[in-house]
Amino acid sequence: MKPAPTVADVLDAARFLYRHMLRTPLHENPALSGLTGARVYVKHENHTVIASFKLRGALNYVRRLAPEARAAGVVTASTGNHGLGIAYACRVFGVRATVFVPERHNPDKAAMMRELGAQVVAAGEDFDLAKLRAREWAAARGLAFVDDGDEPAITAGAATVALEILQELPDVAAVFVPVGNGALAGGTGVVCRAFAPGTRVICVQSEAAPSMYLSWQAGRPVETDRADTFAEGIATRVPVPYALEVMARRVDDFLLVSEAELLEAQRQLISATHNLAEGAAAAALAGLLKVAGEYAGRPVALILTGANVTLAGLRDLVG
Question: Which of 146, 157, 286, 310 could form a disulfide bond with 56, CB atoms 3.0-4.6 angstroms apart?
């Protein structure tokens, strides 16, 4: 098993990343504080150039590629945001990117990947089957496949989100983290355990796609038959063992929320912050709403992980 990223890895990632991106804002939100009773701060990862935190891990991963790997190109699979991050990072470093997406994918995200120069291949009914096809395609061509949840450099890059939160809000009682492949959750745990051991790391996943929740509870990977959530960014059916290992001793709690709770939290986030929030990003608020009584009057941070909502999805949300 690959080692978990160290604090030194995270600090190194942060020093590198600020050459290519600005720190994202952390804003206290009175409307969400009134709704929950906690002092709610929103970490706006929707303000990156790809409107997602995935930019951080992708840049940190691609910059560490050996020269021969850069020359060959990068292959990955994604429901959208990780693919956007890889496409952007490969554009920065002049690397060829191929991204496999599920057949039922977010067309806006796929179009953005192509605009960034990536080759996009639709294959497989869901994300995990797309990942399988991507692995096969890469192996047949002798190319390396990058798995979002299985790369220490990606986890270290994602961990810089938590580093920024603690630098601005060192007394934060809890950080609520949407969970898909688990890189952000694991990275948040690494940072909080090192710099703020009293800060709770609370993971949130949809009950319609609970593989990581079930795996964390069981202490071993647990696959599910389907991942039927509308929030494609957390629609994981097959857990990643490395991500689970990093999370195991660094996450304090894991919550499941319903699709209806996710949808309502998405509406509340958009209304309260006047920012777009995709379904996956709403998981943090949905989780807080389930346990808000535990944090009355205390500062908590919600990671708004991304804002890549399709126009059709937005019409459904407000219609």
Answer: 157
- Fill in the amino acid letter for 187: G
For residues 35 and 272, is the Cβ–Cβ distance under 8 A?
Answer: yes
Shared-domain flag, residues 119 and 77: yes
What angle (nearest 5°) sits at the alpha carbon of residue 237, between those of residues 203 and 152?
Answer: 60
Tens-place pLDDT, residues 215-260: 999 999 999 998 999 999 999 999 999 999 999 999 999 999 999 9
**What is the pTM assigned to this prediction?**
0.96
The helices-and-strands tally (H runs, E runs) of the chain is 14, 10
CA 306/CA 184 separation, integer angstroms: 12
Which among 129, 150, 171 is the end of a domain?
150
Tokens of 113: 């990947």
**Cα gap 214→264, rounded to integer Å:** 24
Residues 152 and 22: their CA atoms lie apart, in Å, by 22
Q: Which domain holds residue 24?
A: 7-53+151-318
CB neighbour list of residue 287: distance below 8 Å, 6 or more residues apart: 176, 202, 203, 204, 255, 257
- What is the sign of the dihedral through the CA atoms of 18, 269, 128 and 183? positive
- Which residues neighbour 54 within 8 Å (Cβ) at sequence distance 6 or greater? 81, 82, 84, 85, 148, 158, 306
For residue 86, with 0-12 CB atoms within 10 Å meaning exposed, 13-18 middle and 19 or more buried, which class applies?
Answer: buried
* pLDDT tens digits along 249-297: 999 999 999 999 999 999 999 999 999 999 999 999 999 999 999 999 9
